Amino acid sequence: MDSNATAERRIGYDLPYAIEMSHITKRFPGIIANDDITLQLRKGEIHALLGENGAGKSTLMSVLFGLYQPEEGKIFKDGKEVTINNPNDANDLGIGMVHQHFKLVEVFSVLDNIILGTEPTTMGFVKEKAARKRVIELSNNYGLNVNPDALVEDITVGMQQRTEILKMLYRHNDILIFDEPTAVLTPQEITELIQIIKGLAREGKSILFISHKLNEIMEVADRCTVLRKGKYVGTVNIADTTKEELSNMMVGRDVKFVVDKEESRPADVVFEVNHLTVKSKIHKKNAVNDVSFKVRRGEIVCIAGIDGNGQSEMVHAITGLEKAEAGSSIILDGVDVTKKSVRYKNTHGMSHIPEDRHKHGLVLDYTLEQNTVLQRYFEKEFQKCGFIRFSKVRDYSEVLIEKYDIRSGMGPLTVVKNMSGGNQQKIIIGREMDRDHDLLVAVQPTRGLDVGAIEFIHENIVALRDAGKAVLLVSLELDEVMNLSDRILVMFEGEIVGELDPKKTNPQELGLYMSGAKRDTNHGEGGDR
Fold it and tell me: Which of 140-144, 147-151, 274-278 has the lowest mean pLDDT?
């Protein structure tokens, strides 16, 4: 961390805390989400809140923002006790929040979203010109660079997040809460966001940064408070601790940051893509252009690349969510499945951990147990004479809950939309890895998971490989790409531009391929070397 930046911010050690949450307790049916937690945020400080999935981080911040009311405890701002009954009260006190899942109206413009609820008016008419001028000034001053006239549905996730930040700045918030702000961002967007957060702190803002990514916390935070299973573990100065110590505080044991795996022993080809082409929905160029590769039993092949270079469209075509162009062929276990349905692929050897867990992975209004059998409810194990055997579904969901440490207030009966993002991800991972399959297509499988869960998932993916399964991994995390892969295929502008051996390359060389600065078109179609 940049110690000079910390000194420049003149953190208020001798002043009343900007925010003090004292002995907060929040209960839900079947669970104590926050159990007597005290959190103290200094003025001008970046304070990280760290914990496992379901540790109570988001709940605590939702209490501060007025979304929940605590059963016990008090909140102080600048040394004075305050009552926060709703987000409007929070905004009046200068408290703003960027939620893990953004609160934006997609059909509205960026400008409309920023001023929504606080529109400047004269005689009942919105003074849009004045609002637009102020939004542009804030955007330029903080280096956010958003287009106020763009529709939210047309901009990237990173730009949507910047819109959320501008919403806080427009409302003159001086307490800024970032709830898992990097969970859906690319590495490049994460770097940009960290610089923005540091800049906000230099302006005198006090920031609460919720995360379970230790590298980011070590880089951006001044202090860190750790929660575990709803309880307060401790608060440490980042300058006086290590990543290993923080992970131990978070999960209660030492965590391995390097994947232990033996040399792969690839066998016969399980999956083959030949001349795959997919049209783009947003421009005239193909999103995927003449891509070919193979995946064999007993190996993990990783598709690496900067987000937006065709990985999503490629996976959608492979799994049946999107149509491939004529001339493409997708072969699974020797059968051409190019035009087969999603269900056919699910029942004939393909499992899929999707990139967007809400859109393609879960039915949010269904219970946890219902989501575990979305692709299997029609099997004999779970139905008889056309009727679902609910006791069998319950038993199966409880097995996955135990095996994958899925945490929720009401167990199998918990409605999925009420669960933390990390535990939602665990439902999908457990369901897909447990199904009988020959190929696992895993897209950002550890997105939103804590270090303990990441370690567990990586071990299970390696175990699948060692059991003779084929794994196609798509990841934006360079550490995951380097640690988990047996072969790396790099995509740039819809094409595979190189095949790399993770033991013989490094992140710098990988970055050159990912940016298009280096290219090797003789990559052998993934396996024919």
Answer: 140-144
Q: What is the pLDDT of residue 3?
A: 42
Quickly state the pLDDT bin for 9 (edges 50, 70, 90).
low
Report how far residue 337's alpha carbon sits from residue 345's, in angstroms, rounded to the nearest whole number.
7
- Candidates 230, 212, 207, 221; CA nearest to 59 is 230
How, if at all, do strands 470-475 and 439-443 pair?
A: parallel
231, containing H or E segment: strand 231-237
**Contact between 493 and 514 (Cβ < 8 Å):** no
Residues 6+ positions from 233 with CB-CB distance below 8 Å: 226, 227, 249, 250
Taken in order 60, 64, 66, 70, is the CA torsion positive or negative?
A: positive
The per-residue pLDDT for 371 is 97
pTM recorded for the entire structure? 0.74
Domain boundaries, given as residue ranges, for the chain: 3-94+174-251, 103-172, 256-349+436-529, 367-427
| Cα 165 to Cα 185: distance, rounded to the nearest angstrom | 15
Residue with tokens 């059968």: 335
Give, in order, the Cα–Cα distances in Å from 445 to each of 217, 303, 490, 529.
21, 13, 18, 28
User: 176 pLDDT exceeds 50?
Assistant: yes
Pairwise CA distance, residues 199 & 193, whole Å: 10
229, 51 in Cβ contact below 8 A?
no
Beta strands in 132-219 (DSSP E): 175-179, 206-211
The helix (run of H) or strand (run of E) holding residue 78 is none
If we measure between CA atoms, which residue out of 498, 491, 523 comes closest to residue 307? 491
Residue with tokens 């598709």: 303
**Which residues are registered as beta bridge partners of 294?**
272
- Could you give the CA distance from residue 6 to residue 39 in angstroms, rounded to a whole number? 20
Measured CA to CA in angstroms, residue 400 lies from 362, 388, 421 at distances of 15, 19, 17
Q: Specify the residue for token string 């951990």.
A: 353
| Phi and psi based region of residue 485 (left: phi greater than 0; alpha: psi -120 to 50; beta: remaining) | beta
Across 168-185, b (16+ Cβ under 10 Å) vs e yields: bbbbebbbbbbbbbbbbb
Instruction: Judge whether 3-94+174-251 and 256-349+436-529 match in fold.
Output: yes
* Superfamily of chain region 256-349+436-529: P-loop containing nucleotide triphosphate hydrolases (3.40.50.300)
> What is 3-94+174-251's CATH topology?
Rossmann fold (3.40.50)
Q: Comparing 35-49, 267-281, 499-513, which segment has the lowest mean pLDDT? A: 499-513
* Both tokens assigned to 352: 């899929």
Between 111-115, 124-128, 344-348, 350-354, the lowest mean confidence (pLDDT) is in 124-128
Q: How far apart are CA 338 and CA 276, in angstroms?
A: 10
Is 439 in contact with 349 (CB distance < 8 Å)?
yes
pLDDT value at residue 523: 59
| Beta-sheet pairing, 286-296 with 269-279 | antiparallel
Residues contacting 141, CB < 8 A, separation 6+:
none
User: String of b and e for 406-418 (b: at least 16 CB within 10 Å)?
Assistant: bbbbebbebbbee
